């Protein structure tokens, strides 16, 4: 995840606290996807 997505998620955490647990899970999943894509890219390029 890049900086923009992080700002959007943190804004949503503050604006809609009732959604925070679900948003944390979504953000965590997207973060893991980003890590996996970066590792796959590095494995192909290096």
Tell me the Rg in angstroms: 13 Å
Task: Output the helix-strand order.
Answer: HH
Whole-Å distance between the termini? 22 Å
Strand percent estimate: under 5%
Largest sheet: none
Tertiary shape: elongated
Helical content class: over 70%
Mean pLDDT: 94
When the domains are counted, the total is 1
Quick one: how many beta strands? 0
Parts with pLDDT < 50 across at least 5 consecutive residues: none
Discrete helix count: 2
- Helix-strand makeup class: mainly alpha
Topology overview:
Elements: H1 3-15, H2 20-45
Helix pairs in contact: 1-2
Question: How is this structure best summarized?
Answer:
This protein is mainly α and 46 residues long.
Description:
With 46 residues, this protein is mainly alpha-helical. It has one domain (3-45). It is 85% helix and 0% strand. The chain is elongated and about 45 Å long. The two termini are 22 Å apart. The model has no long low-confidence stretch (mean pLDDT 94).
Give short descriptive properties of this protein:
46 residues; mainly alpha; 85% helix; elongated
């Amino acid at each position: 995840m890049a900086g923009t997505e992080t700002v959007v998620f943190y804004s949503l955490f503050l604006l809609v606290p009732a959604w925070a647990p679900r948003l944390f899970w979504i953000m965590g999943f997207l973060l893991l996807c980003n890590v996996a894509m970066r590792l796959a890219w590095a494995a192909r390029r290096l």
